[in-house]
Structures are given as structure tokens and as C-alpha cells.
Amino acid sequence: MKAAIWVFWGLMVAACIPLARAQHPYLNKQLASKQVVIHRALVLPAMVDFTKLTLTGAEGRYANAERISAAFYAALCRELAARGVEVLPDPMGAAKTDAEKFAVVELQTRYDTVSLQLQKHPGWVKEGRVTLDDRVARFAPGAGADALVFVRDHTVQKALGTGDSVSEVTFVDTKTGEVLAYVVFYPAVSASKDTHIASDLHNAMHNLPLPLPPQQ
Length: 216
Description:
The chain contains six helices and eight strands; from the N terminus they run H-E-H-E-E-E-H-E-H-H-E-E-E-H. It is of the alpha/beta class. It has one domain: Double Stranded RNA Binding Domain (2-Layer Sandwich), CATH 3.30.160.
């Protein structure tokens, strides 16, 4: 699974981290009231950037990003399964043609545009004001799912291993394109970040309404 490394994007997001430290999910009112229930989900590959600040500038660390991406995707699939959600196969891994792969990349790019709205106005999620539009309904791999799940993680590591990190998990209705839930959390930055992402994710998704309650 390939992870995209966007050094400038990562630095921009990291600069905003101190401004908002919400540890609870922002919920669309339809999901909160259980008018919409997520029984089946399609998780897209986790997109991760990992930047290390040095005396000579910023360096993208592909190996770190690749490792965190794989750990994040696996942890999220396990968490969803434990909460009673059926997880459909990775659409990029299942893609057989260039057109199918491009469709995944195009949808990821669309989400990145919408993600800027989420970061600035997370409260808009409640009223269904943030949407990826009807292209979600045309995404063939998601036809059997209730929601598509987008994962982003941006980490900037400073000297002595300190730094800033922000992760987001976003659930999008496959029929309407509306964002159903936007989960933001702030994992600790360390050399072993990939080993504790599961516990960070579990805590962040604790209040997310899913078929089964969170395991203790």
C-alpha cells in the first residue's frame, strides 16, 4: 500500500494543530439519531505524510509514512470489525485496471479538497453541509457499502523526537456523499507511533455510533 508524502501539506496542517484539540467525533445528525446506520464500510488506503525537521530544512520520510499507513489501515479495519461493521476489501488492492486505480486516486484527491472545509468548519458536519457530491455514488467499489472511510495522518517530527501529529478518520455516506462523521485526534509523536496507533484510534472512536459498543 503506497502512502503519499506531501511535505508542504504536512507542515501546513501541523501548524494548525494547536488551534483545535477536539477529541470527540463530529457527527451528522442523521448518524447521531440513527436514521443512518453504518453496517458495511469501505476503507480507502490511509494517506500519511511524515516530515522530519532538521537543521537543513524539512525532509519527507517515506519509510515512516509507509509503516504508519499500513498500521493505521489495519488498526481501523480491526476496530470497525470489533464494532460490528463489515469491512469490504481494499479498493486499491482489488483494482485490476488503470481506470479502477485512477478512480481511487481521484476520490482521494476529492476528499483532500473537502478536508480543508472540515478542518476549518467541523461543525458543518452536523447539518450535512460538507459533501463529496454524487461522485461517491458512482464509485463502483463502494456500491455495497453504507459508508466510505478516508484516513489521513500528518506528522512533523522535531529535534529529540518531539513534534506534532494530527489524524483524521472521515465517514462519508455512499448514497448522498455527505460526511457522516469526522473523527480528529492527536497521537503522540514517537519512533514507535505505528505500534500505539490502535489504542489512540480506539479511544478517538469511542463515542462513534456503530452497531456494537466499544470493547473495554
